[in-house]
Amino acid sequence: MVRIDFLKIIVASALLILPGKSMAEVDFDPTKAFVKTCSLCHGVHGDGKTPLASSMNPPPTDFSSPDARKRLTLETMITVISKGAKGTAMPGWSGRYTKNEIKALAQHILAHFLKSP
Ligand code: HEC
Prior knowledge:
Strand content: under 5%
CATH class: Mainly Alpha
Bound molecules: heme C
Order of helices and strands: HHHHHH
């Protein structure tokens, strides 16, 4: 009995840590996803000031820079996030996130990093 409860807890925690695709779709939170999968390179604030950045050429884009604000649109970001950027450290995420999730990530960057003063 005690053993079965223990197993249930293990399975339940594994499901929490590794959410299945459908669950991720329903509960997708772009803020959390950005922190989890993008901030390592781009930084939690999207400014690209991370310890890893100095080892990359080109470095991750500083989304808060005036250049990024002028240059980037929702559509261009969706393309780069889906396919990655050739010749850079930016990987494509279409195998990991659905189209809607990628759009939500691009909207997150647009709303929180590009538009911030
Ligand atoms: C391994 C490091 C790394 C990770 C992880 C990463 N990126 Fe990038 N990303 C980069 C680099 C480096 C560039 C710069 C490419 C360039 O200069 O063209 C970039 C470019 C981009 C661009 C295009 C910006 C531009 O200037 O054209 C977007 C949008 C972007 N990343 C979003 C994301 C999102 C969203 C995630 C998480 C799902 C993510 N990145 C994860 C390294 C990373």
